[in-house]
Specification:
single chain, 193 residues, alpha/beta, 8-stranded mixed sheet, 7 helices, 12 strands, 22% strand, globular
Length: 193
């Protein structure tokens, strides 16, 4: 499996790192050994909402070459949803088997047209921003509608990572990862279509 992590200025890094710290563990399990990933962006460095900087290792790749494309949220999504260059780049993810987001990353999938006939979720404080982009906003923590998986606010990034581990490597793998993370919680509010 090949994963693209899409980063941008104004990202909430905890959205990204919460998911990343869980999902990189796919390499521990036989069904998903050999998983690779790229940290992708339009610039070689991105700055989060608080001023922290991270280097991007792949500039503007064709996202259709990945099995899973992940978009975190952050205040930057409010501008990027109207940024033609960024949205056109996200549209290259059309062939990717999995389109995944946390928080307001869903706004980006919506702006690119991938939520048009889908049910989706985002951070509870911004459900109304997502409404124009999807068939229905589901007020839940994780929503899977076909090949699009959206998740709620920041803390949900860990739940989403565990959910994806279970999806790709099985329930035992997900439980092992939770033990490694000392994560005693069981996700609630998972809705699938």
């Amino acid at each position: 499996m090949k994963i693209a992590f899409v980063l941008f200025n104004g990202v909430t890094f905890l959205d990204f790192v919460g998911f990343y710290d869980v999902i990189y563990r796919l390499n521990l399990f036989e069904p998903t050994k050999g998983t690779t990933w790229d940290i992708c962006g339009l610039t070689d460095e991105v700055t989060d909402e608080l001023g922290m900087k991270v280097k991007v290792n792949v500039l503007k790749p064709d996202l259709g070459g990945y099995d899973l494309v992940f978009i975190p949220g952050g205040m930057g999504t409010r501008k990027l949803k109207d940024d033609r260059e960024f949205v056109d780049w996200i549209k290259t993810a059309e062939p990717a088997p999995y389109k995944v987001s946390v928080c307001t990353g869903a706004l980006i999938w919506g702006a690119a047209g991938f939520l048009k006939d889908k049910k989706a979720t985002t951070h509870p404080n911004v459900y109304e921003l997502l409404e124009p982009y999807c068939q229905e906003v589901i007020r839940s923590r994780i929503v899977k509608d076909g090949n699009v998986i959206t998740a709620g606010g920041v803390a949900t990034s860990i739940d989403l990572g565990v959910y994806m581990i279970e999806k790709f490597a099985g329930a035992e793998a997900a439980e092992l990862v939770k033990k490694q993370l000392d994560y005693p919680y069981t996700a609630t509010g998972i809705v699938e279509w």
